[in-house]
Design brief:
The protein is mostly helical. The chain is built from 28 helices and 7 strands. Helix content is 68%, strand content 5%.
């Protein structure tokens, strides 16, 4: 099968970047050289070059990136020159890199991925897909990740236009997670394509991106709430490790890490809410925070969350994150303050674009927006009107995992400030962007991208708010129609398996939700409950059997020990009685034959009594010993059992 040219190009970009030591623009210069040699241009015209580049490599380069690539080819490599305003190839200077060997190896790996992914989709989800589906699915997977790594708020993507498939995105994410450890070659190829995608986006924003490079010394980085929750492990181990590495890189670069008091209080509020709900057991899964969902999925208790709450200061100290108060409003510096109403409208507009089904005004989400506005406004006051052109000159930035918030901030700045073509470092950046900038400057740091990549896959399989909203709508319809009971309604809203079953039934696609979805989920939940009850009964039976065997072993041990003790005592008593009998017999004999010895009344009574018992009942010392042994054994067993 012929590999998709876009995927091939992305993989080649990563391979060249890693092996050749090229930067993200040099990478494209070598692709340009191959294209010039192949097309035999007499003169390079930008509109033709853009079209030819797209046809050969499947990548869409805007005007400015093409100019940047041509300038690098002219100044550094001398592949082209300018004559009378025209761009002319210099063929005797062009060194064409042979990509055929790399292409063959990439194609082999991609064919293997197609085969594995097709089998995975069929086996795990009963979904029949083709090689073409895999290609389109992988590209749509990358395209939905575009916004996480774009360096400005321009709606530009280097990937071809296509309709993202939520279903295939879900399947691919699941596949990547499943093979991340078991199939290192396949996983590495997919990671290479993702890195190539980031490199390609880097060249699209090369003009702006250069402003992000430089030293971090003197930069004050304020961390958002979910960055701290990442460090606490509430968004999974890969998010935690990726965030730890980002923080390490920032500190190594000389940046100071801080958290505003309002964000720290929000962390505590989120944790306290989760603790209370876990303690009470009353919550709707669709309204649960990510922290609460994580606790439920991982069977964490209210005590576990309480421990996290009490150890927050210790965690901040561990990562050298200082708490800071929001700067106060100052009437004498009113000109440093931004239009918060306009900022709020911009944020809400972007949120509505990202998730049109989610209500913000009049809900708890509006309070979150207001808190973000107070933080961003604080950053602008700290900057005191400065419009930094480099990240080192920024002095103050707010780092978040909320892509929409960073995107909205950049849009606000572009509309608010004059000289819109004058690029400045936004007040708000994403953690993904900072990660990307770091490894673009230091390729040795690329191992952190692996964790971010897997973390993104885990995020991609979580039910979206749109999916949850559609599901709840169908549940409410069933309740209103009387088709489900109150108990069933509660199960559909509160059972810990609900969201996991929802994403499995729909493959993360809201369009797959219909009136039958809640009923299917309800059947699965009831089946799970019955299976759990059955397992509990079986476990109880096993426990009873184990206890019975244990009691039998204890009883047998008591029998053996008590038997030994009783035998020892009864034999000892028998020996004494035999000695008494012998002494009595000898004494009686001497009394009978020797007149001077007077009979002893005690010995006489014992002798006569034993003789009479022997004659009447067949009494003998052996029987007496056995009865004594049985008596003692019974007493010992009763005593040991009551100890």
């Amino acid at each position: 099968m012929k590999i998709n040219k876009t995927i091939l190009s992305l993989a080649i970009l990563k391979a060249n970047w890693e092996i050749g030591g090229y930067d993200y623009i040099d990478n494209f210069v070598h692709l340009l050289a191959v294209l010039i040699e192949e097309r035999k241009y007499k003169e390079i015209k930008l509109h033709e070059l853009r079209k030819d580049f797209s046809e050969k490599y499947g990548l869409i380069l805007p005007h400015n990136p093409l100019v940047a690539i041509l300038n690098r080819a002219r100044k550094k490599y001398k592949y082209v020159k300018k004559e009378y305003g025209k761009i002319i190839p210099v063929y005797n200077s062009i060194q064409v890199k042979n990509f055929s060997a790399s292409a063959q190896e990439i194609e082999r790996k991609f064919n293997k991925i197609c085969k594995e992914l097709i089998e995975f989709a069929n086996k795990e989800f009963g979904l029949k897909i083709t090689n073409e589906d895999v290609e389109l699915g992988l590209l749509s997977f990358l395209k939905t990740h575009d916004l996480d790594i774009l360096f400005a708020s321009k709606d530009v993507s280097i990937l071809p236009d296509l309709k993202p498939s939520k279903k295939l995105k879900y399947v691919i994410s699941k596949f990547i997670i499943s093979i991340s450890n078991s199939e290192p070659e396949i996983f590495q190829f997919l990671l290479d394509v993702a890195v190539g995608h980031a490199l390609a986006n880097a060249v699209v924003y090369s003009t702006d991106l250069s402003q992000f490079f430089g030293k971090l010394k003197g930069l004050n980085v304020y961390l958002d709430t979910h960055i701290i929750l990442n460090l606490m492990g509430y968004n999974g181990i890969f998010k935690k490790e990726a965030t730890e590495e980002l923080i390490s890189h920032l500190k190594d670069g000389g940046a100071s890490l801080l958290i505003f008091d309002v964000n720290k209080n929000e962390v505590l509020s989120v944790l306290e809410d989760a603790r209370k709900r876990l303690e009470s057991g009353e919550y709707y899964m669709d309204k649960a925070s990510r922290v609460l969902r994580y606790c439920i999925d991982h069977e964490l208790t209210a005590s576990d969350v309480e421990l996290k709450i009490t150890s927050l200061d210790k965690l901040l100290k561990k990562y050298e994150i200082q708490e800071s108060a929001l700067p106060m409003y100052n009437n004498s510096e009113y000109h440093y303050q931004v239009d918060e109403v306009k900022l709020k409208n911009t944020i809400i507009s972007v949120y509505n674009r990202f998730a049109p089904d989610i209500e913000i005004i009049g809900t708890t989400k509006e309070a979150t927006v207001d808190r973000d506005i107070s933080v961003l406004s604080g950053i602008y006051r700290l900057r005191q009107g400065r419009r930094p052109r480099t990240i080192g000159d920024s002095k103050y930035i707010f780092v978040t995992s909320n892509v929409a918030l960073a995107y909205a901030t950049r849009q606000f700045e572009q509309s608010e400030f004059e000289d819109k073509e004058y690029f400045t470092i936004p007040a708000c950046l994403t953690d993904t962007l900072l990660d990307t900038i770091i490894w673009l400057q230091m390729p040795a740091k690329i191992h952190s991208i692996k964790k971010s990549f897997i973390g993104y896959c885990y995020s991609a399989i979580q039910p979206s708010q749109e999916l949850i909203s559609r599901y709840i709508s169908e549940v409410e319809k069933l309740k209103a129609a009387g088709e489900i009971t109150e108990d069933q309604y509660y199960l559909l809203r509160c059972h810990r398996s609900t969201l996991n079953l929802l994403e499995l039934k729909t493959l993360g696609d809201p369009d797959n939700v219909d009136g039958g979805t809640p009923k299917q989920i309800l059947d699965d939940i009831i089946t799970k409950i019955k299976l759990k009850e059955k397992r509990e009964v079986e476990d109880l039976k096993k426990k009873v059997q184990v206890e019975r065997q244990k009691n039998e072993e204890i009883h047998n041990t008591l029998e053996i020990k008590s038997e030994k003790i009783a035998a020892y005592i009864s034999n000892f008593l028998l020996a004494i009685m035999i000695i008494i009998a012998i002494v009595g017999s000898v004494y009686s004999y001497r009394t009978y034959f020797e007149e001077q010895i007077k009979p002893n009344p005690v010995i006489l009574i014992i002798t006569i009594s034993s003789t009479l018992l022997s004659l009447v009942n067949g009494f003998n010392l052996m029987k007496l010993r056995d009865k004594v042994r049985t008596f003692i054994k019974t007493k010992i067993i009763n005593w040991l059992q009551n100890v």
